[in-house]
Design goal:
The complex is a heterodimer of chains A (88) and B (568).
Chain A (H helix, E strand, L loop, with lengths): L6 H14 L3 H20 L10 H4 L3 H14 L14
Helix pairs in contact in A: 2-4
Chain B lengths: L2 H27 L9 H4 L11 H12 L3 H9 L4 H28 L6 H9 L1 H32 L4 H20 L5 H20 L13 H18 L6 H26 L19 H8 L8 H8 L10 H26 L4 H7 L8 H16 L3 H37 L3 H4 L1 H20 L10 H25 L5 H32 L8 H36 L1
Classes of the chains: A mainly alpha (88), B mainly alpha (568).
């Protein structure tokens, strides 16, 4: 819950939490699924899957490398599928 | 009998239950420890496991478990008189539901927030877990079917509720978009959305909507049922943030407003209960009060569905173990309060005994209709609004409760079917659209099976739904009892309700088996044939109930032997 000082702020924070809390997990998982798909899109070419947008996604790779290890583990790949990038 | 007095007595008893009995259970039986590290802290990920303010958590738990069921069940069960329903709701809340909901949260918190289903496999046997999953699937199927029928009946009874009820969906989508996509702070969408929701009731009163009889060769009831399930199928495929989340939120706010309005009106209007305390002129179609009372009122006295909520989301967000009492026991007390006011509305909001007897001329009548009719009279005289407006208001409230449950229920059924597709390698069932179509078809089959081609009389499913719900409650109480035995603590406070409720569920299933068989036989073919799916489901429930009892006996013997061996 966010910090709140006055009674109105506390009430707003209570409403916010009442709205968010039951679906926090579901929404986070849905967001993660979308992100995972995006990761596949960015790294597809490196794994030998032709990607017509590779030219545009290439510059995103360094930005997403930090998340790469967790992503490939989530996809059921115990070790990195990329020959040139051994994160584990 | 004075309705305000009944309300005060009932609420006081529930409050005493919370103050004293839940304290005893918390200290002596579950032995809550304020220093125990709950899964919300131990496994904190800020997604599923988040320590949450206990008032917020209570609000979630309460609004997740209270809906249309604690209104419909008591609304039907007062056919036997107001006293048995009152006693079962009050004592059920104090000694059954409170201990069950509180226990489900406690058992889950003590087991790394595992669900009751998973705990059934761990604590009892893997076979018991399979039983649990089957019971849950049947429960979802029946709750969807029965709520579809209930909303269809409500739309036909109160055509002025059609526009407000569907407008609520538009309001929910607008709130979802404003908050999730446009990041508007929650207060204004809440205020504006709530005002629109109630303002549109005037529009509903001015433009009532009734469907044409015979359109596509169907009666209006059947048309509504089909429309509702097509809607529920589509809604279950929409992103959670767009419809389900804001709809749930609006419902929660409505629940608090509705409860305040009803109790306020009862205390101000102080109506007299016209229904008899014990009805000596029960219609011939009504089944025996024993055991049917205990399954007709499930939610509001004890309900297995609460265990799914308590061990599903609530236990993952509990800040301190001692909060389990406040969240679990008081959550079920809130539902008991809703059931209590439903009893009062369905028995005190009538001008005379004759008018009440006309409403309850057959078993299955009453329910939502009696709650709305009686509640509108009470609200109208207590708060001073027109009776027509009050009727639409209460119908919309009940329809929204039932509708949201249908949205979530069809979605959960789809998940289960997709999971089966994955477990048994059936790719077609893994497709979201196919799984939704299968879920909706099963519910439609059940709704029309009970209600016939016109969809009328579908409330026949209600006791079956209650029976399944009580079996689930029995399984949850079994898990809690076995855990208590393992810990060397007295199990009688959970075991006694478990034995009682499972026995009642089994007896009720047997009574219904006979009733359905006779009805099917008398109706002949093909009308009677529609009852056979129900007959089959009832048969499965009987078998499940027997297995639950056998599993319970076997688990207890095993744990007793282990405890005896350990002590020697």
């Amino acid at each position: 819950m966010t910090d709140a000082s006055g009674p109105l702020d506390r009430f707003k924070a209570l409403l916010e939490e009442f709205y968010v809390a039951p679906y926090r997990g579901a929404l986070a998982r849905a967001q993660r699924d979308e992100d995972d798909l995006f990761m596949l899109f960015v790294f597809a070419e490196l794994m030998g899957v032709p990607n017509p947008a590779a030219y545009y996604t290439l510059e995103l790779q360094p930005l997403l490398l930090e998340r790469f290890h967790e992503w490939h583990r989530r996809q059921g790949l115990e070790h990195s599928p990329l020959d040139g990038f051994r994160c584990c | 009998m004075n309705a305000a007095l009944l309300a005060v007595v009932g609420l006081s008893m529930i409050a005493i239950g919370y103050r004293f009995y839940s304290k005893f259970i918390a200290e002596k039986i579950y032995q809550l420890d304020p220093d125990f590290e709950t899964p919300a802290h131990a496994q904190r990920d800020d997604i599923d496991y988040v320590p949450t303010n206990r008032v917020v958590l209570w609000g979630h738990h309460f609004t997740a478990v209270a809906g249309a069921a604690p209104i419909i069940g008591p609304g039907i069960a007062v056919i036997w008189g107001w006293l048995p329903a009152f006693i079962w709701v009050v004592l059920g809340t104090m000694f059954f539901a409170g201990v069950h909901d509180f226990g489900a949260v406690w058992a889950s918190v003590r087991s790394k927030a595992r669900s009751v289903g998973a705990l059934t496999g761990d604590v009892v046997t893997p076979r018991a877990r399979t039983l649990f999953m089957i019971v849950v699937f049947f429960l979802l199927m029946m709750v969807n079917a029965v709520f579809g029928v209930a909303i269809s009946d409500a739309f036909q009874e109160t055509p002025s509720s059609v526009i407000p009820a569907w407008t609520a969906i538009v309001v929910a989508v607008a709130i979802g978009v404003l908050i999730y996509r446009m990041h508007v702070p929650i207060l204004w969408p809440t205020i504006v959305g709530t005002v629109i929701l109630y303002a549109v009731i005037f529009l509903g009163d001015a433009v009532p909507i009734s469907l044409t009889d015979g359109l596509f060769g169907l009666a209006p009831g059947a048309q509504w049922i089909i429309i509702l399930f097509v809607y529920a199928g589509i809604a279950s495929l929409l992103p959670v943030w767009l419809l389900l989340q804001p709809r749930d939120y609006i419902n929660g706010i409505q629940l608090f407003i509705g409860l305040g309005l009803l109790y306020g009106a009862v205390l101000i209007a102080n109506p007299t209960i016209v229904a008899p305390a014990i009805n000596a002129n029960v219609p011939a179609s009504a089944p025996p009060i024993f055991p049917l009372l205990f399954v007709t009122i499930a939610c509001g006295a004890i309900s297995g569905f609460h265990g799914l909520v308590g061990s599903g989301t609530t236990s993952k967000q509990l800040n301190k173990e001692t909060d389990a009492r406040f969240v679990g026991y008081l959550g079920s007390s809130g539902e008991g309060a809703l059931a209590l006011v439903a009893i009062i509305a369905a028995t005190a909001g009538f001008a005379s005994l004759t008018e009440w007897e006309t409403m309850y001329s057959e078993f299955g009548n009453g329910g939502l209709a009696a709650f709305v009719q009686g509640g509108a009279v009470i609200v109208s005289s207590g708060v001073g609004i027109s009776q027509g407006f009050a009727t639409t208001l209460l119908t919309v409230m009940a329809v929204l409760f039932a509708g949201t449950t249908m949205d979530a229920g069809v979605r959960l059924q789809r998940y289960i079917i997709q999971e089966w597709g994955s477990i048994y390698s059936i790719p077609i069932l893994q497709n979201g659209y196919i799984a939704t179509a299968a879920a909706v078809s099963a519910c439609l089959l059940l709704a029309f099976g009970a209600g016939g081609p016109s969809g009328e009389g579908g409330m026949l499913i209600w006791p079956l739904f209650g029976t399944t719900n009580q079996l689930l409650a029995g399984l949850t109480l079994l898990v809690i009892s076995v855990m208590l035995v393992k810990l060397g603590r007295p199990a009688r406070y959970t075991l006694t309700p478990m034995i009682f409720i499972t026995t009642m569920a089994l007896a009720a299933a047997l009574v219904q088996l006979r009733t359905l068989f006779l009805q099917g036989r008398d109706a002949g073919w093909p009308a009677g044939g529609l009852l056979y799916p129900l007959l089959l489901i009832d048969l499965v429930i009987v078998v499940l109930a027997i297995f639950v009892m056998l599993e319970a006996g076997s688990a207890f013997m095993r744990e007793r032997r282990s405890a005896a061996t350990a002590s020697t």
